[in-house]
Amino acid sequence: MPHRCRRDRRCRMSVTNTVDAARLNLLLNELRLPAIKVLWAQFAEQSDKEGWPAGRFLATIAEHEIAERGRRRTERHLVEARLPTGKTFDSFDFEAVPMISKAQVMALAAGDSWLGKGANLLLFGPPGGGKSHLAAAIGLALIENGWRVLFTRTTDLVQKLQLARRELNLEAAINRLDRFDLLILDDLAYVTKDQAETSVLFELISARYERRSMLITANQPFGEWNRVFPDPAMTLAAIDRLVHHATIVEMNVESYRRRTALERKRGPGRPPSHATPKTVAD
C-alpha cells in the first residue's frame, strides 16, 4: 500500500508539472519571451541539480532573452541597411591607404562621439580608392554597435525622392529616413546636374542638418560640386550644412582596381610597387 501511494504521488506530481509547463509556455507566449520559452526547462533542470537560488535562475534566463533580442534586432537592421556584401574592416587594406588612421576609424565605428550629435562623415577620393568599402565597413560596425544605418547609391535615393515629390509625398519620405541614425550616400558626384534631382537632394541634406548623420562618398572635391548643384547658392548652402559638424577624410590614393589589374598584368616574379589590396573596394 505505501508503494502504491508513492506511485500515485509521483503520477500526480508528473501531471502537475506537465500542466504547469503548458501554462508557463502560454504565459511566455503572451509576454513575448520566446528565448525563455525555449530555454527555461533546460535551465530549470540545471538549477534543480545545482541548487541555484531563485534569483540566479531568473537572471540567467533573462540574460539569454536580452541577448536573443539583441541578435534578432541586429539581423533586422542588417537586412534593412542594404550594405554591399563582403565590405568589412578585415577585408579593407589600411596599409594601402596610409592617410587613414585605423584608430580614428574604429572610434568612428563606435558611433557615440558623432551620431548622437547629428554630425557627418565625408570621404573624398578618386574612383576605386576604397571609399565605398570603408563606408560600408563603418556602417556594418555601427549596426553591430546598435545603430540603424541605410546604405544607398545617391542616384537611387534621389530617384525615389523625386517620385515622392511627384506624388506630393516628399516630406513624409524624408521623415521616414529619420529612423536611420546614419544615412550613407555613396557616389554623390554621379547625381546629374538637374534642378529636380539636386533640389530633393538639398532638401534631404537640409532636413537632416544637426539632427541625423550622413556619410557621403564623393569623387570630386568641394570646388567641383557646382557640377552637382546647378545653383551656386544651393552649392554653398549644401556644403555649409554638411561640413558644419563633420569629419572629412581625403583618400587620394591610386585606384585599387587599377593597381590590381597592373599587378596581374605584371605577372608573377616581379615585386609589386604597392601592397596588394585584400579586396577590390568601391
Automatic annotation (TrEMBL):
GO terms for molecular function: ATP binding. Pfam families: IstB_IS21 (PF01695). Gene3D superfamilies: P-loop containing nucleotide triphosphate hydrolases. InterPro entries: AAA+_ATPase, DNAC/IstB-like, IstB, IstB_ATP-bd, P-loop_NTPase. GO terms for biological process: DNA replication. It comes from the Bacteria. The keyword Transcription regulation does not apply. Residues 117-249 form the AAA+ ATPase domain. Belongs to the IS21/IS1162 putative ATP-binding protein family. This is AAA+ ATPase domain-containing protein.
